[in-house]
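Handoff note, outgoing to incoming analyst
You'll be picking up this chain. Sequence as last confirmed:
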Amino acid sequence: MKDQIAAKLNNITSLEDRLILKDILNDVFLNLYDHSESMYQQLENRVFVETAGVSDSYDVYITAAPRQHVDPVHYFLRPMRAEDLEEKQFSLDELAMAGARNEPLLQVFFSCDYRIFAYLMKEDRTFHGTITTNEGSIEADFVLREDIRYQEQIKNLYETFINNNIPWKTVNNPYAFRFAEVMLESCQRSLNDGETVTEIKVDFAEYGQYVHYDIVPLWNIEMLKLKSTGFPLPCEDKINFEHTVALDALGVEHGYLAAFQNKNISYVRRTKQSLVIVAPSELKDVWEIMRIIYPASKKTDKYIYPLVSNAKRQAFSDILAQKSLRVIRTEAELKRLISSFAAANELSLSHIAIMPCSQENTEPAASYAMNFFIQDEIRRADCQYRLALYFTVADKDSFLACDRISFVVSEIQLHYPDFRCEGFIV
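Most recent structure output, in case you need it:
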């Protein structure tokens, strides 16, 4: 606008008329224009602030790495279980007790298509192997059992999100669904006194090409114990007190959640600089705080296994859709929802089909439920229809192809609870 006014003024041939008009415009119209622009900018900023969805500070990033490659001072990734960094050693007594108590000897990771791993877990197969000691080798038989400890951590994370009034977004963690525990089924002979175990080897036959030992899943979440600052302030209800935990020293750009385990907490409120915990206790306390570390944008690392996340695009249309309580039931809306996730870059929705649950599948689904722990939805399973989503995958040879589809389908399931959503590869 200002450039147009300047061009019009330059076209006025009379210098006296140009000077008079220029003074009038500078004193009145241009100031009015600047004021209007400022007010429009404030209105636009207010709209974006009020329609903002959940901060991307709560996005969860996950990968996996061999134990010897885990960086203990990495700038944002932490082991899901700290004990995974400890090298496991076996003694005679521990090996005997593990077999008697049905406890695992080893943990293994399978870098294969999820459908292969799921089939193996249902196969109930026995594998042969050897236990090497300082006195020789002992023939033994082993069985596999799915390791659900990492899945339990995701379930606990879901409960923490809900307790902190932060909307849940499906955690894209394909690695948590690929760990198995090696159990001792039988042994050729018992160990002698003083005999020590030096190595355990299992022959996984055709599955051996997928098996990896000492793999540690990593994510950007760590547990902290923080004290509240200042004195607890009494609330108007004359029951609760506000405990303020300052976040400046830890970084306000990160996401913070209060752990409710073994704590009587009424609710939690996040401000820009602090976490306010409302609880009936008037004593200054130490709180267990879960920090979701926001990754630095300029740092780049190379990972042996792909770094995946549940991050969404922060486009205005996506933020506005998150605030809406209405579910738009169109294929175009499904495609918008899928494309809003960074993890769906290599996926494309080909077509969809709705069919009764009684109709049998001609092919097994490629997806599994990542939100298996959500059981509180109100629905009638007896009249449920299936929503089949067919995807084209850019890299079908990737062992994470099914997991990318499972993540997207699990998120769609949250939006369409009256359907049983399933994903297929075209």
